[in-house]
Design a protein that fits this description.
Length: about 300
Amino acid sequence: MPEPPNLFEPHMPEVDVPPDLQGVFTKARIEIASGDERRIGIVTPGRMVMLQPAPPPGSIPKEFVAQVSQLLPSAKPLNITFVGHTQLEALMQDKAKCIPQLGQLLGFAYLGHNVIVFEGHSSAFEYAVRDCDVLMIDSGMLAFLQPDWLDVALRAARPGAKMIVQDRKTGRLQPVIKSKNAQGWRYGEPDGEASYANCLLTMLAKAHSPVPVRIASGSPLPSLAQFAGDPAQREWIAELPFRYDALNVDRVIAILHRVVNWSSPENGESKGVLKAQLATGGGQRQAVSFDLTLGQDAAGKQRLEIVKSA
């Protein structure tokens, strides 16, 4: 006798398709924003709207508020659409078990954002993401979305909207960008100095021969394109979000400085070795290491040299 299905396992449920689907989601946004109570709206597969109250203003510790604010920094309220598991029977039994991100979504509502949750069915996808600033997807629901979901989202959402997948197990937020690969999208890199440092090391690790790179305070950061060894790498680099003129060189040096055990300075220079794991595809990883030299120029500005160990 087969085991009964797990009620809380993500899947695409059967949905109703009322004549005015756009009206369902427009009404949900209005209901969420009306009244003094902040809440999120869960649009069920039957196209009912369940309103889940957020904690009252001032009831959440400032530390938690700061953490949630950092996930989606914004000076204005955002329209957020979240794709999650919304099977009605599961929701009625345990909303938090059905939607593990519920606490975080209520945190967004607590901050004043307008949050709609739905299952991601193709019949309603465009209506649900229309005019949203952020589309977040539970990674458990990715496999059930229509193949062109990103194209639809980019067309329907507001210009510059963020597309994010949240890992169901770890909670990690991963930006999604358009790509020329078979599925039409891939996980992107967030903009910023830490991401730049990681991508720089990745490019140096993939180089066929060691290429020394020099980073100097007061000078522009090296463009990653100069380290591309094949068309696939050039395409990957072209899709990176980095605005090199906005990146802070000293922060990049500080990030790398923190993860290396340095020798005592000798002749004004410290040396260190950085060991890392390079993802080579198929879940495989390769151990790589880098030799780093940190010093100062005549003007007292920092300079850092990085080269893959032979």
